Amino acid sequence: xxxxxxxxxxxxxxxxxxxxxxxxxxxxxxxxxxxxxxxxxxxxxxxxxxxxxxxxxxxxxxxxxxxxxxxxxxxxxxxxxxxxxxxxxxxxxxxxxxxxxxxxxxxxxxxxxxxxxxxxxxxxxxxxxxxxxxxxxxxxxxxxxxxxxxxxxxxxxxxxxxxxxxxxxxxxxxxxxxxxxxxxxxxxxxxxxxxxxxxxxxxxxxxxxxxxxxxxxxxxxxxxxxxxxxxxxxxxxxxxxxxxxxxxxxxxxxxxxxxxxxxxxxxxxxxxxxxxxxxxxxxxxxxxxxxxxxxxxxxxxxxxxxxxxxxxxxxxxxxxxxxxxxxxxxxxxxxxxxxxxxxxxxxxxxxxxxxxxxxxxxxxxxxxxxxxxxxxxxxxxxxxxxxxxxxxxxxxxxxxxxxxxxxxxxxxxxxxxxxxxxxxxxxxxxxxxxxxxxxxxxxxxxxxxxxxxxxxxxxxxxxxxxxxxxxxxxxxxxxxxxxxxxxxxxxxxxxxxxxxxxxxxxxxxxxxxxxxxxxxxxxxxxxxxxxxxxxxxxxxxxxxxxxxxxxxxxxxxxxxxxxxxxxxxxxxxxxxxxxxxxxxxxxxxxxxxxxxxxxxxxxxxxxxxxxxxxxxxxxxxxxxxxxxxxxxxxxxxxxxxxxxxxxxxxxxxxxxxxxxxxxxxxxxxxxxxxxxxxxxxxxxxxxxxxxxxxxxxxxxxxxxx
Length: 705
What we know:
Elements: H1 15-18, H2 21-28, H3 35-70, H4 77-100, H5 108-137, H6 142-162, H7 167-186, H8 191-247, H9 257-271, E1 277-286, H10 288-315, E2 320-325, E3 328-335, H11 340-355, E4 358-360, E5 363-365, E6 368-375, H12 383-399, E7 406-408, H13 411-429, H14 432-435, E8 436-445, E9 451-462, E10 466-468, H15 470-480, H16 483-498, E11 506-511, H17 513-516, H18 519-530, E12 539-544, H19 552-564, E13 568-574, H20 581-586, E14 591-594, H21 606-622, E15 625-628, H22 634-642, E16 647-648, H23 662-668, H24 673-680, H25 694-704
Parallel strand pairs: 6-7, 9-11, 11-12, 12-13, 13-14, 14-15, 15-16
Antiparallel strand pairs: 1-3, 1-6, 2-3, 4-5, 8-9, 8-16, 9-10
Helix pairs in contact: 2-8, 3-4, 3-5, 3-6, 3-8, 5-6, 5-7, 6-7, 6-8, 7-8, 10-11, 13-15, 16-18, 18-25
């Protein structure tokens, strides 16, 4: 079977071997069409001739003076001394010129000029030498005439050999010498000289054929070398591009997280040998996901590009800027600790610059930026520890409602970290069943002043630390991945306490992001509900608004699972996170709880009043309940009544209660009818509640999966 080879697949470096002899000879004089190839070939010819041309001049001078020496006694001095002398001066000048250019790489223009001059001069010298030799011929004896024939023959062969990489010059020399040489001796009538002339012509022809073959190989070698160099250059460009991609963000063109980590390590090592302190900043955009939801990812990308531009402009020479991930950026700078105020001022200026409005598709968008800043002056350890301190300062700023500003890591933060580490260690080893407890805060109907349910609030009394604030230990448990462990203990305790309540009262229970963003954790909650005598329809699970910006699909799955059991779903702390109305609309919510920060001074602050009014109207339109948290004064309650608010929660009605205080509270609130209704109802006494059947529990488990 014969395999057909296409022209495109034929290797370039063996083309000369497959070409015919005539094609090879013709190719010597064919001008290549590619400019780059012409330049490469001309420079290569020049570099090769630079070693051979000086030898050519030595051959010419040696042969010429040997002939002139033989004719000294019989020849006029013009031909034996003056003409060779002029040859010597001219050849010496060219010899020195070529020697002085040894080691230099010419430009294409220089190489082309030298090659053209060499070709022209070779033809002129060949003509002068051959006619000078023939002029000497008539003055000599037979032996001397033979020397002239030998001189012309050996000289032309030597010249052709030395000019093998300049074939046009070699052909010109061969023609200029051989044509008059053959004609002259053919007319001499001497058979020996006629044979010599024909022999020299044939040898010259063979030499030209050999020259053509060698030059074709030489040109092919140059083309191959050029091809290899082009491929190498292309690979270097590709490698450089890949290296850039590996170290930069393609959207903002900023160095990426990998470059950031390399940079902080490098800067930290440099500090060990010099002065100054390393400043590392972590910047996070507040509310950026709202821009993504409102304008799509393309609009979000426009904002990120503009953020990168403002960052570079605002950072100046103080900070190097990096994009770490998503809407998170990094800052790296070096300055003495005495100049920390200036670094802080610069980072605050960056926050202010990023707060300016953004134009997206003709619409104005607003975001802010929060920066956590740390320095090697206040953080012990290496670059990684400084980076972690900057991240902690960022988290601390967001939790303390310092969004839109810079939070500089300080010694106070170090104390807090040590405290959190101690709390985390105790959470890992504590007997949570023994140490965790619950209090319950009533949720009150504004119209009657009676409770409709209670929210379970966690308390922790540790044997080593004493009473630990729930704000502190819940956040630490979430960061340490222990939140679901606490939730399981607290939910079991809450369900056990709510069993003793009248069936009209509901239990509100808070879930962390870890509880609902993990399928396994959701199944644990389902298992606890199935093993409890309390009807799940009496439970409201509260999820924080920050959970909405996590894995939203998993959140919807978790909420749907809990709803399938009959439980209600409340959105807690509404207004403090970054959830959008489109996300809220996709959740099967039963209640929305407005954060207490909007209630404080609601009667005097118009902003809070308008927000609460809008949310109450939103809930009414969505046909879900609205609960206002943090009601503490009569003025606040009166204002909420005017807004047609139905449910409130706060110290105005009651502080959180222990489980055994709930009965007294109900009686004082005038809600004894709740218990009376239980006694009159023809149902199984509440003290001996009915457990769900295995079939009901099986149905609930199927709903959970």
